[in-house]
């Protein structure tokens, strides 16, 4: 996507082959910083500390972590250690495990000397597949937005609410939930996006709002608890969110607070869609509430907030009493019954086992 007129991806190998570069998302929106990942440990830290985040980008970073790990040593013992190190970084996003298992399957049959080059080639394929899948998600989601616009007489903008960041910063490029927004903007459909702030890390405020501003798309930042009010007053035409893991039965796991948006959408007759590539479907799980591991992050994320002062300094300040502890689950699960449909690279489908199986028969079996 474009940032100040220059095309960027969220992750890429440096031309000299010495490292992988990522946009450090912990510095946005106040500074645009590119970080170098030179070792397996660098890749693991980038995932764990959320320099990179978003299920597809986590998967791509893990795949690059395999390449960096194979440059350090390529014997069988190290291959297993690389996999274990990466899988342990974050528990909820299934793309992490998916990418690790794919890299293992590609590299395990090879001689150690062949593994570094094979790893680099495979991660290249993973990244290009991600870009293609997200562009296709954009095309399929565009049809939804276009239908709403036509229903509104092709005059008023389509108002879309999203939660967290599922734009190009969460993928290699294009994004998932925002891919239809970008496709609609390119098609000339007038849009307005309600951007949930997404406490406690404020990915909506710091990432989604930044993306939309750079793309010139009309948007407003929204307090997390305001979405239901807007839906009650007819100010939301469509909700689109991403997914860190979707079960075979259509349950959607996304950033904490997504479930409440789905409840409000159902109560007010607002369509609620999740956009995701097939790699985000965990075919081994059926009951998202009971089976998806929910990451519990440090309480400090909730007890403090980062911002920029009037004189330009970026500071983190505490917002709760010193004696107050925090409970900080990072994700929640929206049951399939609250999801109008899923937007995938292969088209739209109901949030159900039958719906997903119809699009991905080779994986559903």
Automatic annotation (TrEMBL):
Pfam families: IF-2B. The active site is at residue 244. The record marks 164 as: Transition state stabilizer. InterPro entries: IF-2B-related, IF-M1Pi, IF_2B-like_C, Initiation_fac_2B_a/b/d, M1Pi_N, NagB/RpiA_transferase-like. Substrate binds at residues 53-55, 90, 203, 254-255. Catalyzes the interconversion of methylthioribose-1-phosphate (MTR-1-P) into methylthioribulose-1-phosphate (MTRu-1-P). This is Methylthioribose-1-phosphate isomerase. The lineage of its organism: Bacteria, Pseudomonadati, Thermodesulfobacteriota, Desulfobulbia, Desulfobulbales.
């Amino acid at each position: 996507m474009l940032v100040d007129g220059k095309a960027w991806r969220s992750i890429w190998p440096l031309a000299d082959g010495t490292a992988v570069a990522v946009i450090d998302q912990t510095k946005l929106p106040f500074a645009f910083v590119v970080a170098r990942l030179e070792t397996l440990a660098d890749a693991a830290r980038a995932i764990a500390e959320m320099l990179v985040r978003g299920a597809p980008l986590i998967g791509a970073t893990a795949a690059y972590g395999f390449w960096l790990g194979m440059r350090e040593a390529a014997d069988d013992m190290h291959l297993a250690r690389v996999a274990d190190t990466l899988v342990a970084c974050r528990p909820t996003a299934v793309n992490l495990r998916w990418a690790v298992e794919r890299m293992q399957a590609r590299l395990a049959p090879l001689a150690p000397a062949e593994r570094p080059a094979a790893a680099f080639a495979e991660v290249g394929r993973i990244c290009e597949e991600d870009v293609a899948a997200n562009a296709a998600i954009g095309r399929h989601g565009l049809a939804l937005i276009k239908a709403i616009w036509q229903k509104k007489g092709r005059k008023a903008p389509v108002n879309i609410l999203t939660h967290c960041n599922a734009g190009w910063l969460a993928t290699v490029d294009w994004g998932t939930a925002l891919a239809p927004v970008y496709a609609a903007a390119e098609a000339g459909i007038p849009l307005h996006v309600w951007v949930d702030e997404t406490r406690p890390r404020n990915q909506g405020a710091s990432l989604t709002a930044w993306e939309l501003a750079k793309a010139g798309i009309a948007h407003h930042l929204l307090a997390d608890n305001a979405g239901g009010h807007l839906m009650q007053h007819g100010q939301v035409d469509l909700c689109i969110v991403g997914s860190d893991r979707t079960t075979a039965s259509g349950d959607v796991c996304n950033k904490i607070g997504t479930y409440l948006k789905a409840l409000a959408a159902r109560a007010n007759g607002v369509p609620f869609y999740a956009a995701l590539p097939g790699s985000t479907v965990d075919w081994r799980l059926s009951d998202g509430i009971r089976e998806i591991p929910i990451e519990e992050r440090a309480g400090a994320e909730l007890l403090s907030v980062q911002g920029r002062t009037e004189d330009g300094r970026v500071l983190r300040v505490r917002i709760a009493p010193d004696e107050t502890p925090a409970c900080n689950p990072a994700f929640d699960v929206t049951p399939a019954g609250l999801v109008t449909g899923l937007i995938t690279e292969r088209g739209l489908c109901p949030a159900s086992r039958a719906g997903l199986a119809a699009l991905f028969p080779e994986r559903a079996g």
